[in-house]
Amino acid sequence: MNIIHWSHRAERHSVPGMLKIAVLGAGRMGASIARRLLAAGHPVTVWNRTAARTDPLRAAGGQVADSPAEAVAGADVTVTMLADPAAVDAVLFGPGGAAPGLAPGACLVEMSTIGPEAVRAVAGRLPDGVDLVDAPVAGSVSAAAAGRLRVYAGGPAAAVARVRPVLEALGAVRHLGPTGSGAAAKLVLNAALLIGVAGVADALAVAGAVGIDRDSALDLLGGGPLGAAVARATSADADFPITLADKDLGLVLTALAGAPAPLVHAARAALAAAPDPTADIATLTNGELL
Questions:
Q1: Longest alpha-carbon distance in the chain
Q2: CATH code of residue 227
Q3: Any domain includes 60
Q4: Which domain covers residue 281, as residue numbers?
Q5: For 152-187, what is each residue's pLDDT tens digit?
Q6: DSSP for 18-81, written as a single string
Q7: Which one of the listed residues 36, 174, 186, 247 is annotated catalytic?
Q8: Is 186 a catalytic residue?
Q9: How many domains does the chain contain in total?
Q10: What is the pLDDT of residues 244-284, one digit of tens each?
């Protein structure tokens, strides 16, 4: 892959040309992204399957559409932030879907975590003249609100350049290479994150067995090789439900195609043992599973 250095101009408050943006998916991260783009001066139309979730965005100045097709009418850039490949397929290509309404010259920015193969399949089904940039992100909801996400982009260089002002409103942008490269990077990062958090849980179990209290153990671990995982496991504002983490590790295992990855399997087993699949992954380290 050709690596292009990070750029970061997240404090920019206006975009030349006032690109019209549609955001499909108003969960916690999708809503934060839409709100950030509104604050940057873009006209934003949002759609969400559960319509009530769009009410705060309407109050913030966004337009609300009744269907994905309505949301993308006239949009220069369409952002999808959805749960899984099936949701992306339904929202783009199902009844009332967005894809047929994407005009030549428009760009679809796919920010969901669906894996590189699914991204390339979506790209192959778009109307002629519509580009796809896969641009999953790393960072919490608070990072999205502050424009401090890390954005991993894949796609044609010209398409990435065209949507870069939009992506830079969200945070630091790294173009990793052709279509699917951003989605591939997100699988690598999520595999490392989930293995790390599961490792913190095991280390805390060891601490309990040898008489080290939890707070002391976290302090010790925070200064060692698991420091970043400890920071994530003790975060108060992150929201990565166990059910979505399990979906992501499923994508990782599909990509591995049977190659040995014992720590990925162990992390997925830890997720499967969690009592509440809707809870954040930090609950893996709260002692209930130890």
A1: 64
A2: 1.10.1040.10
A3: yes
A4: 185-285
A5: 999 999 999 999 999 999 999 999 999 999 999 999
A6: ---EEEE--SHHHHHHHHHHHHTT--EEEE-SSGGGGHHHHHTT-EE-SSHHHHHTT-SEEEE-
A7: 186
A8: yes
A9: 2
A10: 999 999 999 999 999 999 999 999 999 999 999 999 999 99
